[in-house]
Backbone:
């Protein structure tokens, strides 16, 4: 079983960069000693996770509708070549909002 390059890219950013972002944020929070900047970062973490989750849900729904249209067209025309990779495309749609935020946070926190 082979995964698409887009899916591997999203997995890699979550697998390698997310723990670094988490540890960097925890270190910053510990060093802030409860200052307003530390509590602002906690609020930012929560807001980012909620917006990424809602974005992911909308992206998955759109991807499923798109894949349904592709499947209906394939059924009508008697082809099935366009159905390959449908699960990867839906998974990429689900992970992309999280991956983009992790990459942005990794850039921001590494400065």
Residues:
């Amino acid at each position: 079983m082979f995964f698409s390059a887009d899916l591997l890219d999203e997995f890699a950013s979550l697998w390698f960069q997310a723990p670094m972002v988490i540890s960097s944020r925890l270190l910053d929070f510990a060093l802030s000693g409860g200052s307003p900047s530390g509590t602002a970062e906690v609020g930012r973490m929560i807001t980012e996770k909620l917006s990424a989750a809602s974005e992911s849900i909308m992206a998955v729904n759109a991807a499923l509708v798109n894949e349904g249209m592709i499947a209906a067209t394939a059924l009508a025309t008697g082809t099935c070549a366009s159905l390959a990779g449908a699960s990867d495309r839906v998974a990429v749609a689900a992970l992309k909002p999280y991956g983009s935020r992790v990459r942005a946070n990794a850039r921001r926190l590494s400065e």
Summary: The mean pLDDT is 87.
